[in-house]
Amino acid sequence: MNCLLAFDKFKGALPAAEAVRIAEAAMKDALPSAVVEQAPLTDGGEGFATILATALGGELYQVEVPGPRFKPVTGNFALVEASVIPAAALERLQLSGSAGSGKIAFVEMASASGYESLSEDERDPWQTSTIGTGELMKAAVAAGAKAIVLGIGGSATNDCGAGALEALGVLYYDRELQSVSNITPATFKLVNTLGSTSHLLDTFPPVRIGCDVTNPLLGETGATRVFGPQKGLQAEDFDRLERQMDKMGRRILGLFGKSPETWEKHLSEPGSGAAGGIGFALRHALPDSRFVEGFPLVAELLGLAEKSKAADLVITGEGRLDESSLGGKGPVGLLQMLERNKRVLFLTGSAEMKTIDQLQNEFPNLKVIPISDPDWPLEEALRRTPESLRTKLLEALKDD
Amino acid sequence: MNCLLAFDKFKGALPAAEAVRIAEAAMKDALPSAVVEQAPLTDGGEGFATILATALGGELYQVEVPGPRFKPVTGNFALVEASVIPAAALERLQLSGSAGSGKIAFVEMASASGYESLSEDERDPWQTSTIGTGELMKAAVAAGAKAIVLGIGGSATNDCGAGALEALGVLYYDRELQSVSNITPATFKLVNTLGSTSHLLDTFPPVRIGCDVTNPLLGETGATRVFGPQKGLQAEDFDRLERQMDKMGRRILGLFGKSPETWEKHLSEPGSGAAGGIGFALRHALPDSRFVEGFPLVAELLGLAEKSKAADLVITGEGRLDESSLGGKGPVGLLQMLERNKRVLFLTGSAEMKTIDQLQNEFPNLKVIPISDPDWPLEEALRRTPESLRTKLLEALKDD
Predict the structure, then answer these.
(1) Alpha-carbon span B222 to B331, nearest angstrom
(2) Do residue B200 and residue A196 have CB atoms under 8 angstroms apart?
(3) 10-residue block means of pLDDT along chain B (400 residues)?
């Protein structure tokens, strides 16, 4: 029997690669003759660089950069030879010239500017910066990257990319022409003009921003209102932060020579609201940068189509399965790539009944298996995830 | 009669162009039939951009930038078509490719980071920054300059060029990875690492740093000890500031990939001590930058050789004539270009007897004319310079 182990992370409990390792050990005990293929999944957030470094045989770089609240963190990127990247993925990246043949960096924003390094009470979009992501991008270029693929999941930031631009040479001046460093939305109001970058960014290598959402920068479905709360923003601050984002967004468009009549269009471009606007900023600051759909790219990089086709059984899972899982990425994205009657085990920390029903209706041989006792407090469920995953998987394999 | 009016500035009293205008009016009154040629001189300091814009028919740009103590000042640069630049000057600049045929900017450091904008008690090398010069260079590139010639006279700074590099995208991080902006020697001690600039400066156009001194960055003849005092540095601070300069100099060399065994050589390169080290910083930060001898370049740009050859009488002058005037630039530099027996009037605010004798021995038809009464207090002498210049010149022309 061929079996594909393709877990996403169990957020707050287990990285994807760790879930795959636990499942593999369980398989070895339960079905020692099975041929097992591994494919930890990534949504562009935590694990993006390490998973791709492993999957593609690239080199993992770990670099100290300023974290989301400036305290040093270890930023990750993988450097991978373009020649080993699957052709479909390379085509999706639309890299021309030398970028298509040299080394490509997979830069993990979550490692530099993610919320995992912050305690609950440190999470505050007024105080967080993407400066570390900018530093990490420069480190990737310094290490020889001819192009950058930026994974932007799991960010703690809603800074319109201003911090990343600071790392890339944008100066924020106040009325007295003092420059304001360590820029965050809390200090946007001090900014009066932006220093010219003229040619400074002219040779920045191509950047592809992996993105699975279509939110605009501003408004009801924009970065602040939709993603702000999970980053620690209070609802009563929506308007105030939104005004600052609006102003900074326009300043950035002005700095990079976009004429004012195009600003509304740029501010509402799909994806510009992802990761607090970093994609928006990079799109306009860099000579060759664009959004690419995240999950299809990851699927191609990991060879998910080939691997799942060869599998008699697919075992997948993630921390929580609910409506938000249906967006076409992660385990559900994988499901949608499979033949409809493929046998699938879907292990999940917790799940919404409605979503389970919906998926099991659509995929006749799918079995969704919640691994935690619903009576456990969250903290206990998270702590016991490794053990529960193994136990429930062994049970399921025995029943099967 | 052909007459060349080629004054340098009377420092603190009269810009060079103004001295030339006063002399021209006096000539018109005294010798209305004389054919007058004008050539205000510049030593790369105050007036550099305006004088060259006028002499070469270029366009003068005036841009608000942070001054030496960050208070906004008006920075000047001239944009000049390479095609109108005398061939000898163009050759001296060693510009290749498109830089030799596009527009060339003459950027005046003194306007952005000069001591003229500071009151006596604001002059303090611990507190002054070259950030405005960096901004002015970026503005020149943004305006279309394919190369920059930087005049570095008259600076108020001894910051190792750190401020200019800040404007060009270098970040200074403290131990906590907070970036320290508005960097000056007073905050050097906070700096722990410099942010990578990787490719950021790769396409910066060629920069030529006009320089007439050969001082190294550090040591007895270095920037701090030789030029610090005239910028407001106290002698008891020499060692302390020197240590900071030494550390920053090495950080900059390290940032731009110079191997440690070459550091001593770079730190003692002739000219690296000019203008508080800005040339040193730019030399190592930019892909194509070098020092060029300042006065010979200015002489070629102004066509001094041709103009003085055609003149029966050369009228020149500067604020003070003393031993430091003999360095081969300004009026004495002009003298040294002339046939030995050319008739020359040299008007000067004040003069050292020994230097007068030395020059008059060397040039038989040179007449040095101090214009101020030695009994006047300095303030009065400065204030009365325009009037004294006219009066003394009229007298000299009458005697002649």
Answers:
(1) 25
(2) no
(3) 96 94 96 95 95 97 97 97 94 82 95 95 97 97 96 96 97 95 98 88 92 93 94 95 97 95 95 96 95 95 95 96 87 94 95 93 94 91 96 90
| Phi/psi at A205 (5° precision) | -60, 165
What is the predicted pLDDT for the residue at B203? 86
**d(C-alpha A167, C-alpha A157), whole Å:** 15
Q: Which residue in the block uniquely carries the two structure tokens 């399965």? A: A321
Question: What secondary structure does DSSP assign to A77-118, as a single string?
Answer: EEEEEGGGS-HHHHHHHT--GGGGTSEEEEEEHHHHHBGGGS
Spell out which residues of chain B touch residue A168, defining contact as CB-CB under 8 Å. Answer: 169, 200
The residues, ordered by sequence, that sit 6+ positions from A377 with a Cβ below 8 Å of its Cβ are: none
User: According to the model, what pLDDT value does residue A124 have?
Assistant: 97
Chain B residues bordering chain A (beta-carbon distance below 8 Å): 64-67, 70-72, 131, 135, 138-139, 141-142, 166-169, 171, 173, 176-182, 195-205
Query: Minimal Cα distance from A205: which residue of B?
Result: B199
CB A224 within 8 A of CB A233: yes
d(CA B314, CA B306): 12
Contact A369, A390 (CB under 8 A): no
pLDDT exceeds 80 at position A400: no
Predicted complex ipTM: 0.82
**Chain B residues close to A163, C-beta within 8 Å:** none
What is the DSSP track for A268-294? T-TTTTGGGGHHHHHHHHSSSEEEEEH
Cα Dmax for chain B: 72
* Candidates B66, B180, B196; nearest CB to A181: B180
Which residues from chain A sit within 8 angstroms of residue B195, using beta carbons? Answer: 135, 138, 167
Spell out which residues of chain B touch residue A182, defining contact as CB-CB under 8 Å: 178-179
Packing angle, helices A294-302 and A48-56, rounded to 10:
30
CB pairs under 8 A between A and B: 104
Mutate to test the interface with B, among A71, A98, A107, A171 (most CBs of B within 10 A): A171
Average pLDDT over residues A183-206: 92
pLDDT (tens digit per residue) in A220-236: 999 999 999 999 999 99
pLDDT tier for residue A200 given thresholds of 50, 70 and 90: confident
State the Cα torsion B301-B305-B309-B311 to the nearest 10°: 40
